[in-house]
Amino acid sequence: MNLIDEAFEKARQVLRMNVTERGFSACSMQHDEDPGSNYRSVWARDSSMMLMWALPLEDAEFTECGRRSLETILGAQTRDGHLPNYVDVATDRPEFGGIGNIAGIDGALWVVIAAWNYVKVTGDALYAQAPFFEFVLERGKDVLTVLKDERRNLLQDAQGLFEHMEPTQTQNGSRQRCTWDAEGFRSWASLDRPLRVVRSLETTTVHRQLDKQEEPQVSDWMWVTTLSSSRASTNAVVDLGHSRWDIENQGFNELVNQWQSDHVYKHDPVAILAFWLLTMLVINVFRSFYLRNLKPQRRQHHSMLHITRCLAAELYQGLGRHVFPIPT
User: Fold this and answer.
1) Which is nearest to 260 in space by CA: 43, 109, 97?
2) Is the pTM of this model over 0.70?
3) From the centroid of its chain, how far is CA 41?
């Protein structure tokens, strides 16, 4: 075994010391001599990073521990949506602040990104769980998630019903879509409410660069949702289901890379919250302006980044005229 392979195996051994019944702890429990240390906890940021780095190893113990980490952090979420900084392994007590009243804001972002990576790699419907549905519904929201084999009875009932239904066919550019939609499913025994299942069989024609030939690509999607047909059409449900990729690529990545939302400008809980809420307000106002106010032709030729630079230039120009009046 060469030096690199030996170091790799040592690293795996160290990571395995952090495996606990609640997820990845921030330290080896057997080597931390302080029983009151907050390192003996599942941290939102640390455990999320551990999960993402461990997924490529295809180690069943690490993957399952990563899942427990997500369940521990998400299970401690407050009614207003706050995620804890960490959860104590021994007491299961969540902590939302930190030493010296310093609260981190990047943990929640890492949890969402880690959950997305977990679902993408394992194919596990992490959110298709009855407690998660109930948690969201109690807060006046609806749920839309991919229907997987874990809900076998519901999946089989929907597939059986759709075999006797004529699909609705639509065409959008090079994409042809056949959809089935049915409500009133009660096959999910642990969830005492009717559910709606939507299936979308999509065929897209792509042009191969090598031989310039057209090739059809088929994808089959199945979603379960609490949204009724009176509140969301079939196409709306399908578009919402596909928008998960937009949330990841245009949402969280953009928050970090373009809006610097993971940066702490002042280490004070009130200031951190104020900066975060102000950032969310600015982002929502700007996206509403870009998507709702600008004409489609303008959006086709100019990116969001270009428009933000134009807005910034006008703000700086106005500031310059105020501070340095143009001589007459």
Assistant:
1) 109
2) no
3) 23
For the beta carbon of residue 46, count every other beta carbon within 10 angstroms.
Answer: 22
**Residue 268: CB partners within 8 Å, gap ≥ 6?**
101, 102
DSSP of 56-81, one letter per residue? GGT-HHHHHHHHHHHHHHHHT--TT-
Residues of the chain with pLDDT under 50: none
Length of the chain as a residue count:
328
Whose structure tokens read 């379960």?
A: 224
Helix (H, G, I), strand (E, B) or coil at 255: helix
Q: What is the DSSP letter of 82?
A: P
- Residues 204 and 52: their CA atoms lie apart, in Å, by 31
Angle among Cα 98, 80, 269 to the nearest 5 degrees reads 30
Q: How many Cα atoms within 13 Å fall on the side-chain side of residue 317?
A: 6
Give kind and range of the element (H or E) at residue 310: helix 304-323
